[in-house]
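REVIEWER CHECKLIST
Item 1: Sequence provided? yes
Item 2: Single chain? yes
Item 3: Sequence as submitted:
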Amino acid sequence: MKLEISGLHKPQDVSIVQTLGRGVLLIEMEDGIHQVTLLKVTSNEIEFILDKKYYRAKVVQSGSREVRLLLHTTLISIRKNPSIQEILKSSLSKDQRTEGGDKDIKSQIPGRVVSIVAQAGSAVKKGDPIIVLESMKMQVAVKTHRDGNLKQIKVSQGDTVARYDVVALLD
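Item 4: Structure as written out by the authors:
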C-alpha cells in the first residue's frame, strides 16, 4: 500500500511494511525503514513518534481522498488508499483485530506501566484499579468500567502502552 506525502520538498512514496500491534507501524520511505508509533488519532489531531522523536500534527482538511496536516510549519498532504483500513486490519493478528467491547479494559493515556495492582482470576468491582501508568511524571490508575472477574492482564511492568490499548480483559 502506497501513500504519497508531499510537503516543502519533493513528493515521497511511503509504504507500510508491517504493523507490529499497539499502534506501531514499520514504514518504508526513500531513505529506509522507520518505526512509527501512533499515540493519538482524532479527527483534528494526530500524535505520533517517528524514530524516537515525538510529533503532533493538526488536521487542517480531511477528505475522502486526501488528508492535509500541519506539522510544525510544514503543510503535508497524504493521499489515502481507499482500502487502508482493510489493509491494516488484515495485517493484524486475530487478537489485535478485536473490535473491543465490554470485556476490554483500555488505557486512557499513553504511558509506561509502573505497577500491576490486580491479579488475573480475581473478582473486581467497577472503579477498581488494575494497573498504574506513568505519563509525563504523573501516575494514573487504569480502572475497571464494570464488575466482573479479571480474565487476563495483557501488559507487564515496564511495558509502554498507547492511548486506547487493551491492558486487561474481563470475563
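Item 5: Key structural point noted by reviewer: The chain has two domains: 2-91, 104-170.
Item 6: Recommendation: ____
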